[in-house]
Specification:
about 70% helix, about 15% strand, about 70 residues, alpha+beta, 2 strands
Length: about 70
C-alpha cells in the first residue's frame, strides 16, 4: 500500500508541474492602486488556496452561528 501512496504523490506532483509549465503566460491583476504581474498558473494556485481558506472560515462561522442559535437562553 505504501507504493500506491508514493505513486499517487508522484502522479499528482507531475500533474502540477505539467500545469505550471503549460501556463507560463503573464497576466496583470489590479486591485485598488496596486497591480501585480504573475504567471497564470501562480494566479490560479493562489486563488485556489484563498478559496480553501475563506471556505473553511465561512464553514466554521456558519457552524458557530448554528451552535449559538441552538443554545437555550
Amino acid at each position: 500500500m505504501r507504493y500506491v501512496y508514493i505513486a499517487l504523490i508522484v502522479a499528482l506532483t507531475a500533474l502540477v508541474l505539467l500545469f505550471k509549465l503549460q501556463n507560463l503566460q503573464m497576466v496583470t491583476v489590479s486591485l485598488l492602486s496596486a497591480s501585480f504581474t504573475l504567471p497564470v498558473s501562480v494566479l490560479l494556485m493562489l486563488i485556489y488556496v484563498l478559496g480553501m481558506l475563506t471556505g473553511g472560515f465561512l464553514f466554521a462561522l456558519v457552524r458557530t452561528w448554528i451552535r449559538g442559535a441552538r443554545q437555550a437562553e
